[in-house]
User: Which sequence fits this backbone?
């Protein structure tokens, strides 16, 4: 369709508020969206060739869901866009070429899910801890060497997926995430879990460390592990009570018995 929208598409977008542009081969979002800014609630432009987002993006004040996976983005949002996107709840930017996230990403105060898997991130901005409504953060398959202590400010966070990065240390400050249920750290360089996390994350039921050099006996000897393990077993007891099968692994311990160093990427 190129980068121009047909009159029929414009009419549909205006009526429904849903802009569907998956697999269209476009290099940018259609400029006509600026003319219907007040009505746009959902944009899905995944699997295209978009390299940058338009300057009018901050005018989409009612935009709730923005999905741009599988594009060529190197910069997330134009200056000031975060402050303008006051209704955004979901932002999915998997499999792009992002080297960083904007410093003002904390302005997305209603954001509930942020997924930036498969990019080139080496750090996360401290302002990410200002995302008080965030429930799910997916930063897997990047080049992260550390997680910021400020993540502890995401008081609603339930899922943190940081698999396949270059993390060696897990911040003790994450123990402040009282609602965290799942922490995925597979295929990193993690060699220890702070006891503050095991004690502090009272809702934690899933801790996955497959492909990390941490030894099972060392993890089990960490203060707070016993309490975490009880919660983990209760989770699987509920699964079994509901008639579900655990699969070939049985009750997944979260670590590998035969530990080998993670492969260099």
Assistant:
């Amino acid at each position: 369709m190129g980068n121009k929208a047909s009159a029929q598409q414009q009419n549909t977008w205006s009526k429904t508020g849903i802009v569907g542009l998956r697999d269209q081969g476009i290099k940018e979002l259609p400029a006509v969206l600026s003319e219907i800014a007040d009505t746009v609630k959902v944009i899905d432009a995944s699997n295209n060739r978009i390299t940058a987002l338009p300057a009018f993006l901050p005018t989409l004040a009612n935009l709730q869901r923005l999905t741009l996976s599988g594009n060529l983005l190197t910069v997330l949002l134009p200056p000031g866009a975060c402050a303008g996107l006051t209704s955004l709840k979901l932002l999915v930017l998997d499999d792009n070429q992002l080297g960083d996230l904007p410093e003002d990403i904390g302005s997305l105060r209603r954001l509930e899910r942020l997924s930036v898997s498969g990019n080139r991130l080496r750090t996360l901005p401290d302002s990410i801890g200002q995302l008080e409504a965030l429930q799910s953060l997916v930063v897997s398959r990047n080049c992260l060497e550390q997680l910021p202590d400020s993540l502890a400010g995401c008081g609603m966070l339930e899922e943190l997926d940081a698999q396949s990065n270059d993390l060696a240390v897990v911040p003790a400050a994450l123990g402040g995430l009282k609602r965290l249920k799942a922490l995925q750290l597979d295929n990193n360089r993690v060699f220890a879990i702070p006891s503050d996390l095991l004690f502090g994350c009272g809702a934690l039921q899933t801790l996955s460390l497959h492909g990390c050099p941490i030894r099972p006996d060392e993890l089990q000897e960490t203060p707070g592990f016993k309490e975490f393990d009880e919660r983990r077993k209760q989770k699987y007891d509920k699964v079994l009570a509901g008639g579900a099968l655990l699969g070939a692994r049985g009750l997944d311990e979260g670590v590998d018995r035969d530990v080998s160093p993670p492969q260099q990427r």
